[in-house]
Amino acid sequence: MTEPLYTTEILRLAASLSAPGELEREDGSAEVRSPACGSRVRLVVQLDGDRRVERLSMQVHACAFGQASAALVQRHSRGRTHDEVSEAMLTLSRWLAGEHDQSGWPGISALAPARPRTARHGAILLPFRALLAAMEAVG
């Protein structure tokens, strides 16, 4: 028998995604979409004086994998720079493709059931793409 696509841990992570909230200020924002699956993330970021993530708010329309990934981005992005998020996304891409043993982001190994399902990779990477795009949009 094959393992279930959505484990209890994935569903718990997906359900833990906080609703969008207001930030003191919106330093950058982005909306990205996965053409493969139609998932969509709108993200607003507030950065500190060193251009590190201070707070963020997201609207996520995605499968449980995308929602779980977004919850992990929400949980572990504080204090990260653009370069750190970019490197984590690259490592995560390689991990999803089976080219790397490390996932590159805290807790993301819970999404291991998606590794052989390449159609789900776009949804998992989407919150990272949204965060990077919002950080790049900062004036």
Question: What's a quick, concise take on this entry?
Answer:
The chain has helices at residues 8-15, 64-76, 82-96, 121-136, and strands at residues 28-33, 40-47, 53-61. With 139 residues, it is α+β, with helices and mostly antiparallel strands.
How is this structure best described in words?
The chain is α+β, with helices and mostly antiparallel strands and 139 residues long. The chain is 37% helix and 17% strand. The chain is built from four helices and three strands; from the N terminus they run αβββααα. It has helices at residues 8-15, 64-76, 82-96, 121-136, and strands at 28-33, 40-47, 53-61. The chain has a three-stranded antiparallel beta sheet with strand order 1-2-3. Helix 3 (82-96) runs antiparallel to helix 4. The longest helix has 16 residues, at 121-136. The protein is globular. The N and C termini lie far apart (52 Å). The mean pLDDT is 93.
Query: What percent strand?
Result: 15-25%
SSE arrangement, N to C: HEEEHHH
**Regions with pLDDT < 50 over 5+ consecutive residues?**
none
Radius of gyration: 14 Å
Number of strands: 3
List the helices and strands and how they pair.
Layout: H1 8-15, E1 28-33, E2 40-47, E3 53-61, H2 64-76, H3 82-96, H4 121-136
Observed structural traits:
alpha+beta, 139 residues, 37% helix
